[in-house]
Amino acid sequence: MKTLYTTQATATGGRNGEVKSENGIVALEVRYPKALGGANDDYANPEMLFAAGYSACFDSALNLVIKKENIQTGETTVTASVSIGQNDAGGFGLEATLHATIPGVTLAVAQELIEKAHQVCPYSNATRGNMLVTLTVSND
Fold it and tell me: Cross-referenced InterPro entries, in alphabetical order (predicted)?
């Protein structure tokens, strides 16, 4: 891989601590969500941060594909839902669902675009074969 960009973030205290990026832009307290035994859902957590990164990255990949295909669409959105659970080996794993809205095209074209974006997106390439990623799409 030819590296184009590298960044760092540091966690202190794990899921009940804080995360900070090297430039200080990201500086968040993280806590267990209520569903995992936390007191409430008032803080960020690793799955939330992963969902934010995956949705932003995938939307960029989608728009790159749209541009390369020279297709006219309205503004796209991508929502990433990330779940954590126990796996069969006694550890934990993640699953994700990515829902893209691609206005101005048929559902068939939207489906083709999301599939192509899934081949381009670095998050999709990193997770392929390691976690279930479900793709859904709408055009409104």
Answer: KH_dom-like_a/b, OHR, OsmC/Ohr_fam, OsmC/Ohrsf
